[in-house]
Amino acid sequence: MGAGHGQLFVVSGPSGSGKSTVVAHVVRTVPDMIFSVSYTTRPPRTGEQDGRDYRFVTRAAFEQMLARSEFLEHAEVFGNYYGTHQSVLAAAARQQKDVVLDIDVEGTRQVKSRLADAVAVLLLPPSAQELEQRLRARALDTAEGMRQRLERARHEIENYGIYDYLVVNRVLAETCAAVEAIVQAERLRRAGRPPGSGEARDWEARAAAARRDNNKSQVSAILETFGAQRP
Ligand code: 5GP
């Protein structure tokens, strides 16, 4: 029998936060995890594969699916639709696996309101300046695109209160380990296991350090670098 039970794990964070690397790491290292391939109306980027990274569909096709209420959640990001199909839940339950969703803050809100026990993790850049540098290094954006991404990142961070865990991405390998630990610790907790030894104890300690309530002041400091008022 698999270790998963159809549990949902959401990972959000601004582009340039290393999110896709983190999500790929979790799917690769944690047993019985599947990645929820989203539907999108945005065109594929170089190297992206239909069915692996996204299911690329037309706006008309997306709107039809929307009208049939086929999405667990959906959002419009930078003028394109993105959505998680309802069928990921049944697929995960059938295969006795858990699912990782890489979705934005609006989608997370919808998932949380429908499935109260979904676990949501927000990845944060150390500062606005650091995020800007990373976006510049990717060289994917125009100046306007960059401004929009920074604005969006700020919006996401301002809504940190809907997330269960907050992980500041300073060193990517550490961030991968932290998110892996959160998933493993949540599994142990849900299975009603007593605090374990060795590896399990390490997961629990890492997860505890990442809990939202232990990171509020850190988030306030990061928000300030985005020019936001302290909440
Ligand atoms: P990108 O176009 O860079 O791949 O993704 C843009 C944003 O859309 C990211 O923040 C990503 O997390 C979000 N996103 C991707 N798939 C979904 C989805 O199915 N639902 C929602 N709500 N957001 C998504």
How many β-strand runs?
9
The number of helical elements comes to 9
Cα end-to-end separation: 46 Å
Unreliable segments (pLDDT under 50, ≥5 consecutive)?
Answer: none
Structural class computed from helices and strand pairing: alpha/beta
The rough form would be described as globular
What is the assembly state of the chains in this entry? single chain
CATH class of the domain at 8-36 and 98-225: Alpha Beta
Rg value: 17 Å
Proportion in helices = 40-55%
The largest sheet is:
5 strands, parallel
Please write the string of helix (H) and strand (E) elements: EHEEEHEEHEHEHHEHHH
As for the CATH topology of the domain at 8-36 and 98-225, it is Rossmann fold
For CATH, the homologous superfamily of the domain at 8-36 and 98-225 is named as P-loop containing nucleotide triphosphate hydrolases
- Name the ligand types: guanosine-5'-monophosphate
Strand order of the largest sheet: 2-7-1-8-9
Instruction: Specify the CATH architecture of the domain at 8-36 and 98-225.
Output: 3-Layer(aba) Sandwich
What amount of the residues lies in strands? Answer: 15-25%
Q: How confident overall, as mean pLDDT? A: 93
Q: Can you describe what's shown?
A:
This protein is α/β, with parallel strands linked by helices and 231 residues long. It has a domain of 157 residues: Rossmann fold, CATH 3.40.50. Helices cover 46% and strands 18% of the residues. The chain contains nine helices and nine strands. It has a five-stranded parallel sheet, with helices on both faces. Strands 4-3-6-5 form a four-stranded mixed sheet. A hairpin with a 2-residue loop joins strand 5 and strand 6. The longest helix is centred in the last third of the chain and has 19 residues. It is globular. The mean pLDDT is 93. Bound molecules: guanosine-5'-monophosphate. Guanosine-5'-monophosphate binds next to strand 5, strand 6 and helix 4.
